[in-house]
Amino acid sequence: xxxxxxxxxxxxxxxxxxxxxxxxxxxxxxxxxxxxxxxxxxxxxxxxxxxxxxxxxxxxxxxxxxxxxxxxxxxxxxxxxxxxxxxxxxxxxxxxxxxxxxxxxxxxxxxxxxxxxxxxxxxxxxxxxxxxxxxxxxxxxxxxxxxxxxxxxxxxxxxxxxxxxxxxxxxxxxxxxxxxxxxxxxxxxxxxxxxxxxxxxxxxxxxxxxxxxxxxxxxxxxxxxxxxxxxxxxxxxxxxxxxxxxxxxxxxxxxxxxxxxxxxxxxxxxxxxxxxxxxxxxxxxxxxxxxxxxxxxxxxxxxxxxxxxxxxxxxxxxxxxxxxxxxxxxxxxxxxxxxxxxxxxxxxxxxxxxxxxxxxxxxxxxxxxxxxxxxxxxxxxxxxxxxxxxxxxxxxxxxxxxxxxxxxxxxxxxxxxxxxxxxxxxxxxxxxxxxxxxxxxxxxxxxxxxxxxxxxxxxxxxxxxxxxxxxxxxxxxxxxxxxxxxxxxxxxxxxxxxxxxxxxxxxxxxx
Length: 511
Fold this sequence. Notes:
The protein is α+β, with helices and mostly antiparallel strands. The chain has 13 helices and 21 strands. It has a domain at 276-481: Dipeptide-binding Protein, Domain 3 (Dipeptide-binding Protein, domain 3), CATH 3.10.105. Strands 2, 9, 10, 11, 12, 13, 14, 15, 16, 17, 18 and 19 form a 12-stranded mixed β-sheet that branches. A 4-stranded antiparallel β-sheet has the order 5-6-8-7, covered by helices on one side. 51% of the residues are buried.
C-alpha cells in the first residue's frame, strides 16, 4: 500500500514525560544580538538534562530538542503523519517492510548531507543496548535496516508492526550524524537537521538556538533565534511574561491561567492533549504486589474531584484505562466511575490489611496539588499517604533508575498508536520501572502490534484496556488540558494535541 505524499489522518497523539533537572556545560560569553533580531524568549520550567534525542525522557529536554532534529516523518498540529526527511514511503502487505525514499536536500547542522546510511545508524543506535535508549522497545522486533541506495532505506521487522510509522514521526528516532556521538557531544550540544541549531548552553541560565538557514522546508523557520530561559518558579514566569522579559510561557501551569487571562496584553492558547495523570504503583513491592491492594487504591480515588480541584476543571476523568474517548481504539471501559471507600476497605481486609496501609506518595514540582487531593481521598479508605515532593532529577533517579518508591504521582503522554498507551505494562517492555507483569496483558500487547487491520486491533485493545483496568498497574486519573501564555508580539503559535511544539518553526515575533 502506497503511503508516500499522502497525509495519513490519525486519531490522536501525545508525548509525556518525567520532569527535569539541570545539566552541566561549559559556559560561554553572552552572544551578541544581531541587528533587529527575531528572537523568541521562552520560559522553561526546568533545565534540560541533555540534548540527545535517543536518550530523551524529559519534557523540558524535548521542548528544546524537537526544534533541533528531524525524523523520517513528522506530525502536523492537526495530528497527521507527514513527510519530513523522507519524501515518500511504502509498506508491504504483511506490514513488515517499510521503505523510505529520502529527500536529497537535507543537511546536518555540521554541513554534511543526510543519506540512507545516517538513517540506518540512527535506528540501530536506538536499539543498541550499549546506548541504553528507553525507546528501543519501539523496534523490539527489528530484523534489519538495509541501505538500498544512497537515498533509499528499508526497515524490516520480524513481525507485522502496526506502530512503526507513528514511532518514526517522533523526536525519539531523530536522524543524527554518527560523528556527533563521539565524547557524548550530543548530550551537551546536539547536532540535527531541524529548523534551529545549537549555539550555547549556559548552565542554570539558558540555551540558545539559532535559525538553520539550510533547513529543508523552504521559508522556515521564521525566527532568527530561540532563547530558552530556565525559570522553575511559575510565579516568576508569570511576572517575566507580563513584564515582557520573556515572550512565551510554553507550558503555563494551571494556577497561572487566571493571572494570564487577567492581562489584556497576554494571550492564552490551549486545549486537550492526550497525556494523562496517574498514580504509578510499584507492583514489585509489598503490599502492592497484591492486585486487591492496587484495586483498593483505584476505588478510593475520586477522579472528578481531582479534575475540579487540582486541575481547576481543565481535564477529563479517566474511569477505566488510559485510552481517551476520542481515540479510534477507545472501548468504553469504565469501572471506577465513583469512589467507594468501603469497597477499598473490604479489598484491603481481604488482602490481609484490615487496619489499612501506609505508603509514600512520591511527587515532583507541578504535581503537588494532585498529590494533596489524593492524600485526602486515600485517608477516607484507611490508607495513610505521606507526600514526598522531590526535585525532578531526584524523582527520575528514584523511579527510573532505582525503582525505590511505593506510589508516584506522575504523568505520561502517548504517541499516535494505541500500543504506546500500554507499553508500561509489558513485563520486559520499555518504560516499565513499576515491576508489573501479567502474561495475558503481555500477549494482548503483542497481538495489538502484529495486526494491521484497524477493526481487529480495536477489538484487541478493548480486551487489553479492560484487563489493565482490572489489574491496576496504574490508577488512571485524568486527561489534562495544556496551555501556553505569550505576549501580543508573538504570532503563529498553534495549539497541538500532541505534547510537542514543532510549530515554533512557524512562529514569529513583532516588537
